[in-house]
Amino acid sequence: METVLVTGSKGLLGSAIVDASKAYANYNFVFLDRSSGDLTIQNNVEAIYKKYQPQYVIHAAARVGGIHANMSRPGELFYENLLMNSFMIHYGYKFGVNKLMCFSSMCSFPDTSSAIREGCQQDGKPFEANAAYGYAKRMVNVQINAYRKQYGVKYNSIVHGNIFGPNDNFSLVDGHVIPSLIHKCFIAKQSNKPFVIWGDGSPLREFMYSADLADVTLKLLFGDLKYDEVLVSNDSEISIKEVAMMVVDAIGFNGEIIFDTSKPNGQLKKVSDISRLRSILPDLKFTDHKQAINNSVEWFMNNYPNVRK
Ligand code: GFB
């Protein structure tokens, strides 16, 4: 049986890959999390490859956060992502890994209101608030391209946008918008206080359920992928206000709602052109936003207070 090594298996994406892997019983999946070793340390990464000798790798571990984390801890996000991605790709090559998937981010692309697509990542600066994280994630593509050219490896970068779902980080300050709003709305209901949404609610995002990205990742890994890079995003935009109202409905909150415009709006929109993905997976369907938010709220309620926060 061939071995598929998955890093970050307790995180948002990694845990969704654990679930999706159940449909691939012909492979031996090995799931790693933080307790298996800090991937920003070269020796740990080398030792992991030596121990498991995988044929396939899905590197889902990352240091991530929402707009506040990006603005307050850019050094940490830059350094940790750059090192762990670089070591995972390098030792994958050294240990003869056949296929490797590493994740880049839509926010590593230039800040533009037009649709982004594969190949245009280096055409301009990323949005300032998440530039450090964005530049670190750009290097995934740079390294994969360099290794494909020099060593002929079949490694790929999956570029995705905002994802959410079970096992997310529900931090009120450092989380991404949907998990933060779920936690905030829950507390507002419990304490009979207003539900405070940052910004004016107008920014648009292409939110994607983590299970959808996990499903696509495994299909691309085991399929005959001829591209180095694939953009994976739910190409139907929705505003922060609309998702906040879906959270309100799912939690059953009836109190006061405040938009705190002293907090940043962030990038006003990030649109993708996923024609490459649709040409590879023509039957692809994304989970409906309302359904995905209801599932995430249900998971949060069932697991609170034992959630990452
Ligand atoms: O998920 P998020 O923090 O980051 O969403 P980005 C920020 C948007 O949600 C802004 C609004 O428009 C905020 O004003 N918002 C409203 C809130 N309430 C809240 C709240 O309670 N918490 C948060 N966090 N936002 C991310 C990058 O950008 O894009 C990541 O930060 C990643 O690094 C991802 O790359 C793809 O969507 O702006």
Structure keywords:
309 residues, alpha/beta, two-stranded parallel ribbon, 15% strand, globular, binds guanosine-5'-diphosphate-beta-L-fucopyranose
Q: How would you characterize the overall build of this protein?
A:
The structure is a single chain. The chain has 309 residues and is α/β, with parallel strands linked by helices. It has ten helices and twelve strands. Strands 2-1-3-4-5-10 form a six-stranded parallel sheet, with helices on both faces. The protein has a two-stranded parallel sheet with strand order 6-9. Helix 2 runs parallel beside helix 4, helix 6 crosses helix 8 and helix 6 packs across helix 10. It is globular and about 60 Å long. The protein starts with a strand and ends in a 6-residue tail after the last helix. The mean pLDDT is 97. Bound molecules: guanosine-5'-diphosphate-beta-L-fucopyranose.
Largest sheet data:
6 strands, parallel
Structural class: alpha/beta
How far from one another are the termini? 38 Å
Secondary structure tally: strands: 12
Q: Give the DSSP E fraction (strand runs of 2 or more residues).
A: 15-25%
Tell me the strand order in the biggest sheet. 2-1-3-4-5-10
Write the element-wise H/E pattern from the N-terminal end onward.
EHEHEHHEHEEHEEEHEEHEHH
What coarse outline follows from CA principal-axis ratios? globular
Helix content: 40-55%
Distinct ligand kinds = guanosine-5'-diphosphate-beta-L-fucopyranose
Low-confidence stretches: none
Overall average pLDDT = 97
Question: How big is the Rg?
Answer: 19 Å
The helix count comes to: 10
